[in-house]
């Protein structure tokens, strides 16, 4: 699918105002259920975790969404802690279901070794609409800086704040999809009054480290584990993935704090943003979830061995 030459909302070259944002929101139809897909899964984990409601997302006529985190029942102050986040972008399905699958299948393996805080779906309105932005046409994963405006990001920041400097690991689970190029990047260009410049979607899994503290051995441990589950994205002809230089097989770096990314919400020594490619003919939804789980497990095992 090719992006439209002109996005159907707004005037080319002019940033959106309230009218355009409202028109965009009116186009966003509910396509799946947060209650059925996520809340029921969380309920089934109440015997294994302390389930904490850390906020409520009020989206007016579209409803109110309770926000939940899973917290190790045997939380100990003398143990290192790890944060796992999914669904910062609601359309990135394996981020949500990979986090839940890890909680269900493998969290018990770290009991007595590591405290876990798992937030499987940060953006439930966007999850239901298979959308990148929140209801205000704001990207939650550019809203973790001091000027961030996304309510979803603010709620997560408040949850994490008391523990911010105590995490050893933070894994933020994402996807790069074909719709990034066909819908979301054209929408962003239109919203910001800019010209859309086509890019290239990488075929395969990759990770994003932090330019300020990239931890290359950590990133490569994740790549090695995921390569057993699904294929790793190669560099393009420019030696890049989505416009950033490839610094090692399947790894690029972003300035996380400068961009207001979720990966900057803690000061964890080991931080990585995963990027699964669900649209590949070489990957199934189950493989995508398994890749997220493999990434989390590799990250935790690497950190605990140091």
What does this molecule look like?
The chain has 306 residues and is of the alpha/beta class. It has a single domain, classed as Aminopeptidase (3-Layer(aba) Sandwich). The chain is 32% helix and 19% strand. The strands form 2 sheets. The chain has an 8-stranded mixed β-sheet with strand order 1-2-4-3-5-10-6-9, sandwiched between helices. A two-stranded antiparallel sheet has the order 7-8. The chain is globular and about 55 Å long. Its cofactor is Zn(2+). Residues 30-306 form the Peptidase M14 domain.
- In helices, the fraction of residues equals 25-40%
**Shape from CA axes?**
globular
Report strand order across the widest sheet: 1-2-4-3-5-10-6-9
> How much of the sequence is in beta strands?
15-25%
Question: Low-confidence parts, pLDDT < 50 over ≥5 residues?
Answer: none
If you compute it from the alpha carbons, what radius of gyration comes out, rounded to the nearest whole angstrom?
Answer: 18 Å
Mean pLDDT: 96
**Beta-strand segment tally:** 10
CATH architecture: 3-Layer(aba) Sandwich
Terminal-residue CA separation? 45 Å
Report the CATH topology name.
Answer: Aminopeptidase
Name of the level-1 CATH class: Alpha Beta
How many domain modules?
Answer: 1
Oligomer: single chain
Report the order of strands and helices: HHEEEHEHHEHEHEEEHEH
Structural class, from secondary structure content?
Answer: alpha/beta
Largest sheet: 8 strands, mixed
Number of helices: 9
CATH superfamily: Zn peptidases
